[in-house]
Design a protein that fits this description.
homodimer; 384 residues; alpha+beta; Dna Ligase, domain 1; nine-stranded antiparallel β-sheet; five-stranded parallel β-sheet; 30% strand; globular
C-alpha cells in the first residue's frame, strides 16, 4: 500500500494528547488522517484532516468509522474491541490488533497471558467479584498484604489499591479483579518496543521512574536508566519477549518492576505511545510518535537510540488550585538549557490533573536530572 | 503579557510550509493562532486555531486581520508592509518590525543598509530600470561580468541572473534592480540569529551550503560547517552585527559568501525561519521554529547548539515529471539511520518544484554527509 498517496487514510480512535502528538508526525509524512472522539473539543481536532464526534465505545460508531479508513489505530485502550474484530474480518488493517487489545483491556487475562507465555510477573489470584476476596483470605488461600486491581479499565489511583488489612477492602467496587502479590521493588522500569507488520522489532532504551519519596507518584522519567547494563539488558530482552508473544504491531510500552534481588517482572503494558516515552521527542533519534506511525504503516523502524539523555517531568495541577490555569514561572524554566515545556491546552486546572510535561535534555543524564529538579521546584500549575 | 493564557492570540501572515512548521510549536505551548492566506488549501489551515482566506498584500485585509491579534508575524516577506506600520502605530506588536521588512523587501535598500552600517557586502550599483544598465556599461561605469538582481520580490531563479555579455540583459524585466560585483566565492554560508524584544540574542552555528558542481543549485546544507573555527566565528559575528543593526526581533537568516581569500560578505537576509535552518528540527536543542516563537513572544531563547550533526537535502521534483506526485524509494531512505523525510503535502509535482526536505543526523558530520549522499541517490520525486 502506498501510504504517501492522496488516497490513503489513517483512522485514529480517540482525540487526546497522545493522538495529537502522533498527528504532528502524520503532517510530516503528509498522511491523511481521520479522528473520532466523543468530545467536540478534543485536542486532536485541530491537527487532523477530518474530525468526527462520536462514541468510541459504541460498536456501530466504531464500525462505520473504521470502514472509511485503510489503517485504523487507537490512542486509548478504552474503545469498542468487538468492532475492531469485525473490521479486521472485513479486511481493514487494525494495529495494534483487536486480539492484543482484548487481552490487555482486562488485567486478569493480561496476567494470564504472561504466565501462559512464560513471562515473569508478580503472582496473582483472579476473582469474579471483590466480595470473593474476603472469603479467600479467611480460608487461608490469600495472604495479606496484596495489591487489589480492578480487571477492567483500572487506572492508577482508582483501579489499584494496596490491601494491608481486611477493612481496606471496604469501599472498593464489587467488580472483576485480581489480587497480586505486593512486590517490594526497588525501581520501576519501562521499555517501549516497536514492531511493524513485517516483524521488524526494536526497543527503546530502558527508562527509570523516580518516585517522590512520600507521595509515591512518579516524579521523573529518566532515559537512559542509571542502572547497570546487565539489568537494562534484562529489561529490554523481557520487553522484546512480551511484544513478540503478542505478535504486536505498533508500540508496546512495557512497565516492569526491578525487585530487590534484581529480577525483572512485567507489571503491565500499554499498546500505544506512553508517558514513559515522552522524553523521546527531544531525546531520541526517532520520537515514539513517529515510530508508532512507522510501525503501524509497516515502514522501516527508525533509530531508537538517544541523541542526548532525557528526563521527563509531568506537569500536574497544584493542590488547592481549581480554575483557570496559570503556569507560574514558565518563563524561568524556559531560560534553563535544554528545557522544553509541552502544555496540553486544558483551560482548567484541578489538583493533580495532568496538564502537560516538561522535557529536559543534556549530554549527561546526571546534569539533565539536576536541571529537572530545578524545573520541578520552579514551575507551578496554579489557578488565577 | 501572558502568552500562555486563553486570551492571547498570535497572528501569522501566510499559511505556507514555514508557517505550518511554526504552528506545530504553538501547539506545544498552547498558543492560540490565527492564520491568513490567499489560498483556501494553505498548508497551515489544518494546524491553526482560526484560518482566514484573504490577500496578505492588501492593506485593508492585513489591517483588519492584525487588529484581531496581540502579536503579528509573517512567514513570507511578500506582505503589505504599510498595514504593518499602521498596526504598529496602533500598538499591535509586529515582529519582525515593518521597518526591517521594508528595508529587506527591496534588495537595493537592503544593500544600502549594509553599506550604511559598515557591514561587508559585495559592491553594487543601483538602477531604477534594467534599461539604464546598458548605458552604464557603455559609459564605462560598470564592468562585465556582474550579477543582475531585481530589487523587488526577486527569488532565486527568476530574480537573479549572471550577466557576462550585454546580450544577457535581453529578456530581463525592465524593473528597479541592482548590478552586483560577481564574487568568486568558494563557499556559501548561512547563520540564523534569534533576538527577542528584550534584546537577548543568540546565533545558531554556521551552516555550509554544498552546491551541485554542474547545476549550481544547493544540494546539501550542513551543520556544523566543515570549516575552521576562525571562519565560522567570523560568520557568526557578522550575522550578530547584522541582526543588531536591524534591532531585529525574531529570526534573521543571514546568507553569506566566503570569498577565496577567506573574507565573509553578507549576501542577503530573510526575516523568518529559513531553509538553511531546517536541520535544526532534528539536529538542535531548539528548532528554529520553536526559537522563532520564543523570540517574537519575548520568551527566553533556547539553546542553539547541535545535539548531533545535521545535513539537509531538499526534495525537488525530478525533470520530465509533471503530475500526481510519487516519492519513489521513500521506504528505502527511511530504513537508513537518522533519516527523517518531511513531505510538504503538495499533490502535484513538476520539475524542480520544492516538495519537501530530508534531514539526516548523526554524531559525526562526515557520516551524516555520507548518508545524505545515499539519500539523494535513492529517493526520486516523480509523477505516476
Amino acid at each position: 500500500m502506498n501510504y504517501f498517496s492522496s488516497q490513503f487514510k489513517l483512522g485514529i480512535l480517540g482525540g487526546g494528547q497522545l493522538g495529537k502528538m502522533m498527528l504532528y508526525n502524520t503532517r510530516k509524512f503528509d498522511i491523511y488522517t481521520k479522528v473520532i472522539d466523543s468530545s467536540a473539543d478534543a485536542p486532536s481536532r485541530l491537527a487532523c484532516d477530518e474530525f468526527i464526534q462520536g462514541d468510541i465505545l459504541d460498536y456501530e460508531t466504531v464500525l462505520n468509522f473504521g470502514r472509511q479508513v485503510d489503517v485504523l489505530t487507537f490512542e486509548i485502550e478504552n474503545v469498542n474491541v468487538d468492532a475492531l474484530e469485525t473490521l479486521e474480518q472485513e479486511g481493514i488493517k487494525v494495529y495494534p490488533s483487536s486480539k492484543t487489545l482484548r487481552t490487555i483491556q482486562n488485567k486478569a487475562t493480561q496476567k494470564l497471558f504472561y504466565t501462559d507465555n512464560g513471562i515473569p510477573t508478580a503472582p496473582f489470584f483472579r476473582f469474579a467479584y471483590t466480595s470473593e476476596i474476603k472469603e479467600a483470605i479467611n480460608h487461608g488461600g490469600l495472604n495479606l498484604p496484596f495489591v487489589w486491581k480492578s480487571a477492567r479499565f483500572g487506572y492508577d489511583g482508582n483501579g489499584v489499591k494496596v490491601i494491608r488489612q481486611i477493612s481496606d477492602l471496604e469501599q472498593l467496587p464489587n467488580v472483576e479483579c485480581i489480587a497480586e502479590e505486593l512486590i517490594p521493588f526497588k525501581n520501576e522500569l519501562a521499555v517501549i518496543v516497536a514492531r511493524n507488520a513485517d516483524g521488524e522489532i526494536k526497543t527503546y532504551p530502558t527508562v527509570e521512574m523516580e518516585f517522590h519519596p512520600e507521595a509515591n507518584q512518579v516524579e521523573y522519567v529518566l532515559c537512559p536508566a542509571r542502572l547497570p547494563d546487565a539489568i537494562t539488558k534484562k529489561a529490554e530482552d523481557l520487553a522484546l519477549q512480551v511484544a513478540t508473544a503478542f505478535k504486536h504491531v505498533g508500540l508496546l510500552a512495557v512497565e516492569m518492576f526491578l525487585t530487590k534481588d534484581d529480577n525483572v517482572l512485567v507489571n503491565e503494558v500499554a499498546p500505544r505511545p506512553h508517558n514513559s516515552g515522552h522524553y523521546s521527542i527531544e531525546g531520541s533519534y526517532t520520537s515514539q510518535f513517529e515510530q508508532q506511525l512507522r510501525a503501524i504503516l509497516n515502514l522501516p523502524l527508525g533509530n531508537t537510540d538517544n541523541k542526548v539523555a532525557g528526563v521527563m517531568v509531568n506537569l500536574v495541577g497544584a493542590e488547592n488550585h481549581t480554575g483557570n490555569v496559570h503556569y507560574k514561572n514558565i518563563e524561568t524554566i524556559m531560560a534553563m538549557d535544554g528545557v522544553t515545556p509541552h502544555i496540553y491546552g486544558k483551560k482548567q486546572t484541578r489538583p493533580f490533573r495532568k496538564m502537560g510535561h516538561v522535557t529536559i535534555v543534556d549530554k549527561d543524564i546526571n546534569k539533565a536530572r539536576e536541571i529537572a529538579g530545578k524545573v520541578k521546584q520552579t514551575i507551578e500549575v496554579i489557578s488565577k
